[in-house]
Amino acid sequence: MKKIALSGAGGQLGSVVRAALVARGVPLRSAAGSRPLVPLVEGEDVMHGDLRDPATVERLLDGVDVLIHFAGTSVERPLPEIIDNNLRALVEVYEGARRQGVRRVVFASSNHAIGMYPVTEHLGLDCALRPDGFYGLSKVWGEALARMYWDKHGIESICVRIGSCVERPTEPRHLSTWFGHRDLLHFLDRCVQAQDVGFITVWGVSANTRSWWDNSGAERLGYQPTQNAEDYAEAILARPNPLDALGQRFQGGGFVGIDYSRTTDAVDAAAAMPPAA
Ligand code: 15L
């Protein structure tokens, strides 16, 4: 069986993935940041540390076939923090993968790499990137970095533009963006098992009736989602939408309004713009 490393194992998604893989008896090393992980089972392979430190990365990747890289800042934050956690640490991780001969990295990108598209647009995997903040921008950079390590060093990467990965969809935006936990685990299983993926970008989204994102072109991964946010639509639509007008207009939702300074007229014009070529 392949040895898997999971960074960000103490985080919201990392804890879900860690618990599931440990329960299945997958050979796993789980890493957290500053706070040590309490082993879920006796003898669990756990560690923690700062991924900007090559020695920490060395420990994380020793003997590993596939890294699931979930560590990093996962929301909009001041730029220096994003640079440290999402840019500098990512370079260290890929350099470590290169030294240690790690075959494949699953890189947690985000829908915020394209958050400035209006909700009226449907996007393929080859759409132009339109980040909705510094966090989204760091994911654009991460995807390009992953591409470079495939092109120059032959390290495979699956960049997953995660939508809203929560247990249950709770708001209207989730009807399009939801990535159910069962689908996430199936997705990661495919990321480990699929042959010869090379470099690939995939939307991390369930089979939502109202999805904005089309995974055509990523068939070789064999990801076949079965969850659909529509099952929760009635209850969701009976409640008020928590997003303001701007958040309801753009795919990035609430992230779009952070440090947004265009006038309402400009927002109208941008939302009415024809799709990018
Ligand atoms: C993300 O990238 C965030 O990490 C997560 O907290 C959610 O905001 C999610 O996107 C989303 O867009 O729902």
Structure write-up:
With 277 residues, the protein is α/β, with parallel strands linked by helices. The chain has a single domain, classed as NAD(P)-binding Rossmann-like Domain (Rossmann fold, 3-Layer(aba) Sandwich), CATH 3.40.50. The chain has helices at 12-23, 54-61, 79-100, 134-153, 174-177, 181-193, 233-237, 245-249, 264-271; strands at 4-7, 28-32, 45-48, 66-69, 104-110, 156-162, 199-204. The protein has a seven-stranded parallel sheet, with helices on both faces. Strand 4, helix 3 (79-100) and strand 5 form a beta-alpha-beta unit. Helix 2 (54-61) crosses helix 3 and helix 3 (79-100) packs parallel to helix 4 (134-153). It is globular, with a radius of gyration of 19 Å. The N and C termini lie far apart (44 Å). The model has no long low-confidence stretch (mean pLDDT 96). Bound molecules: D-galactaro-1,5-lactone (15L). D-galactaro-1,5-lactone (15L) is lined by residues 74-75, 110-112, 162, 164, 177, 253.
